[in-house]
Amino acid sequence: MANDALTMADTPTAVAPTHGRGNPLMYTLGMPIAMFGLFIALLPPVLVAMALKVAEIAPQDQAGVLGTALGIGAFAAMVANPLAGRFSDRTAGRLGMRRPWIIGGTVLGFAALVVVATTSSVVVLVVAWGVAQVAYNATIAALTAVMPDHVTRSQRGRVAALLGLAQNLALVGGTFLVQLFSTSATQMIVPGAIGSAVVVLYAVLFRDRVLVDRPTSKLGVGQLFGSFVFNPVKHPDLGWAWLTRFMMVAAQYTAVSYLTYFLRDDIGVNEANLANAVFQGTLWNVVGIVLTSLVAGWLSDRLGRRKLFVAVAGVVGVVGLVLIALAPSLSTVLVGEFVMGAGMGVFYAVDLALITDVLPSDEDNAKDLGVVNIAQALPQSIVPAAAPGVIALTGGYSGFFITGAVVGLLGIASVSRIRGVR
Fold first, then answer.
1. Membrane-spanning residues where (predicted)?
2. Is 15 left (phi over 0), alpha (psi -120 to 50) or beta?
3. What pLDDT does 19 receive?
4. What share of the chain is helix, strand, coil (3-state, %, to 5)?
């Protein structure tokens, strides 16, 4: 078990408690704004620009190269997130525990994104995208840990709702920026520059948690491997919460990763209008999110309930995915995007609050959240790798999306097994 590997220097007494300290707006509003910036930088390449870039440099094997790039990038993200979280938990110095990782990850991530945008080599593209995912996920690990560091349990539903809303608003903001430019290079670099600047500005301004005593022992191999695991027998609620997130993200990612090709090949959207069509889809998706997420986060805090909201959100999200899969036209896809957004908005609003409520301990917040974030990164590796086979087996992108909906139903079943929260 990862927590059993902790040394005395890693105990809670080594860390200054900071819940409720500093300017509350830096955590209730500033942190979601920073998350918005981070995903403005990271999402446009995943949703649109990467597919178009791959079509430019590997026109004969677009689906295969895209799957390889996204899969390797997601695997890199899966490895980087918990490791960065572990190191963040042990980072001492006047700059704080989280700030160095937020700034360093963002700067390196943007540099790698520039390489992705300007290369004409498939190998360089894949490697640089992997580096970008490592760097930006180091930022995600540290930024996510700010919530349990500073936000009280009674406020987590609202803050989680704002974080989820910020991530999904970045879908619209990013794809809106993308459609303003005609080349894949500018479609990556401009959103990346704007989003990265927002994150760095937040990191400079917020009051970070500071480690009082430097850890006296070095991380051994066992502890490093322990960064990727927790004991689901000792902490079953965290295990079921992990599985719920894994299944729901996998379901959603089936549509996200291949939406561009689905619109082009099945719906008949021409290349010139693809970026705008994806923008319309993400816009309606976020409309659904906005209408549900903030209300769901507030109600979840008010009623003290998490599981019910997650289960209902999952059902609505799955219905939206089925509508997209069976869509005969772009207008039906937009309806499906709206319905899926309404469901996933509630899910992301409450799921993070549920997870922070079942974290095993306070001294390893970033590491444990990093392990949980594997549940978000792993599907992004598995889904692209499995996609060509599933698409061939099920007869096309629609069958692929239906398969994702089935996985989403399994996620809904998982949340019912959590016992420690209502």
1. 29-51, 63-80, 101-120, 126-147, 159-182, 188-206, 242-263, 283-301, 308-326, 338-359, 397-416
2. beta
3. 42
4. 80, 0, 20
> Which pair of tokens denotes residue 226?
């322990």
Q: So what's the pLDDT on residue 8?
A: 30
Q: What pLDDT score does 372 carry? A: 74
Among 192, 72, 208, CA closest to 136: 192
Tell me if residue 15 falls in helix, strand or coil: strand
For residues 354 and 298, the answer to whether their CB atoms sit within 8 Å is no
Interior CA angle at 388 toward 382 and 392, to 5°?
135
Cross-strand bridge partners of residue 211: 15
Residue 199 burial by CB count (10 A; 0-12/13-18/19+): exposed, middle or buried?
Answer: buried
Q: Which residues pair with 15 in a beta bridge?
A: 211
Instruction: Return mean pLDDT, the chain.
Output: 80
pLDDT at res. 291: 85
User: Tokens representing 43?
Assistant: 């999402």
Spell out, as residue ranges, where the chain has pLDDT lower than 50.
1-20
Task: Tell me if 261 sits within 8 A of 397, measured CB to CB.
Answer: yes
pTM: 0.67
Q: Report residue 292 CA to chain centroid gap.
A: 19
pLDDT of 9: 33
Please state which of the four CATH numbers 1.10.1160.10, 1.10.1200.120, 1.20.1250.20, 1.10.155.10 is assigned to the domain occupying 26-210+226-415.
Answer: 1.20.1250.20
Tell me, what's the pLDDT at 197? 95
CB atoms within 10 A of CB 215: 17
SS3 211: strand
> Residue 26: phi, psi to the nearest 5?
-65, -20
